User: Which sequence fits this backbone?
């Protein structure tokens, strides 16, 4: 009930607004804390910096390579990037180590692959290629 | 069924959408079986309703950062009606109230959701740490089923944000649906003529393993979801849903129980208990 000239203060409106506000506040807290937390993490000096793809050989002619990939949050994520990499002609297999983001590739030396194809496959799968190590 | 925002994938809780996409060329199938017991019905039919949903979601990567999905809900419903003889709607069974409740069961296809998810931003800050932001949009289209279809094409649009850090993951989402039709005495959130807004938040914690290893092939998560469902007719409810998710390299199973912690609905039955079992498969 309201009186003319007073602010609306219907009980049902108060419940509705409070519930929406609580849920929205939870969302804002999650968003802000995650942005600040992950920004701090990404600034840690212990993390290797990514070398640009054009610093790697254009063609990889060895029988194996090791990638460092960021963003592999779960087992299903690992399968997504594994499928993306094994779809590249010349890649025989890809095994994922979730603890380090390491991806061990077995390659066909008779079918050299482009490092840009590896970078594109990882990126298209939704992850970040940080490094390629060759034997 | 609130299928316009029901799809989920890895590192995504059972009900609240996350900004996680299926990679291009991959197909991700998901099925959820949900039992719902509805409570007090404000319609003249005074229905006591129990429902069992089977929601099949087919998700496919279209291109980098873009993902499409189709949600196909099938509903089995049992209702007992005890209507007031002079006020009951014409399409419901009627009779003198002293005959007692009348029972009815039906099964059919509800509205189908066709959606697209566009990941507009992502940042991978560690081997397992990431943040992602996606826009979700699409249409709910009528199935044509006599009683389960809404008979209108309803667009929806929203946004989802996901963060994963160590053993923790969190999602928040907001989805708005414009309803162009619907029965006045609908049964569930989003099925009536009023527009619907859904605010969701979820947290996931990896119970096992403590640390990922080279031989890790599966993870067990505890999940806790908070869903606020608001309609522009003033109905609102908030549901808390704890559950478990086990995720392997190309499949997952999930379990969730939901209970209403706050509810003010006048135009549809109160929501009661909700139990969900589901599985996911990456092809």
Assistant:
């Amino acid at each position: 009930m309201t009186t003319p000239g007073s602010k609306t203060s219907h009980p049902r409106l108060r419940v509705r607004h409070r519930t929406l506000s609580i849920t929205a506040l939870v969302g804002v807290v999650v968003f802000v804390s995650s942005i600040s937390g992950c920004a701090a993490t990404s600034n840690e000096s212990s993390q290797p910096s990514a070398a640009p793809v054009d610093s790697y050989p254009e063609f990889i002619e060895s029988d194996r390579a090791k990638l460092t990939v960021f963003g592999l949050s779960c087992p299903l994520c690992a399968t997504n990037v594994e499928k993306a990499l094994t779809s590249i002609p010349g890649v025989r297999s890809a095994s994922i180590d979730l603890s380090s983001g390491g991806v061990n590739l077995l390659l066909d030396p008779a079918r050299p692959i482009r490092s840009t194809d590896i970078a594109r496959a990882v990126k298209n799968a939704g992850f970040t290629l940080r490094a390629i190590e060759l034997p | 069924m609130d299928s316009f925002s029901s799809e989920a994938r890895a590192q995504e809780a059972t009900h609240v959408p996350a900004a996680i996409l299926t990679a291009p060329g991959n197909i991700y199938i998901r099925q959820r079986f949900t039992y719902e017991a509805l409570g007090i019905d404000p319609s003249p039919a005074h229905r006591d309703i129990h429902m069992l949903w089977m929601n099949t979601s087919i998700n496919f990567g279209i291109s980098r950062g873009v993902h499409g999905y189709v949600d196909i809900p099938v509903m089995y419903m049992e209702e007992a009606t005890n209507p007031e003889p002079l006020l009951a709607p014409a399409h419901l069974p009627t009779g003198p109230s002293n005959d007692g409740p009348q029972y009815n069961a039906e099964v059919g296809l509800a509205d189908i959701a066709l959606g697209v998810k566009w990941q507009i931003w992502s940042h991978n800050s560690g081997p397992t740490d990431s943040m992602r932001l996606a826009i979700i949009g699409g249409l709910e289209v009528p199935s044509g089923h006599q009683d389960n279809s809404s008979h209108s094409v309803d667009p929806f649009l929203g946004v989802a944000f996901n963060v994963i850090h160590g053993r923790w993951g969190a999602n928040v989402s907001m989805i708005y649906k414009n309803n162009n039709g619907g029965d006045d005495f609908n049964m569930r959130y989003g099925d009536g003529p009023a527009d619907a807004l859904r605010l969701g938040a979820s947290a996931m914690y990896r119970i096992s393993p403590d640390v990922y290893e080279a031989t890790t092939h599966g993870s067990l998560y505890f999940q806790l979801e908070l869903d606020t469902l608001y309609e522009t007719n003033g109905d609102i409810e908030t549901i808390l849903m704890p559950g478990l998710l086990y995720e392997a390299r190309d499949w997952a199973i999930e379990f969730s129980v939901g209970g209403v912690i706050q509810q003010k609905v006048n135009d549809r039955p109160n929501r009661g208990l909700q139990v969900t079992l589901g599985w996911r498969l990456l092809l």
About this structure: Chain A touches chain B through 49 residues (CB under 8 Å). The first strand of chain A starts at residue 59 and ends at 60. DSSP finds three helices and six strands in chain A. The first helix of chain A runs from residue 11 to 42.
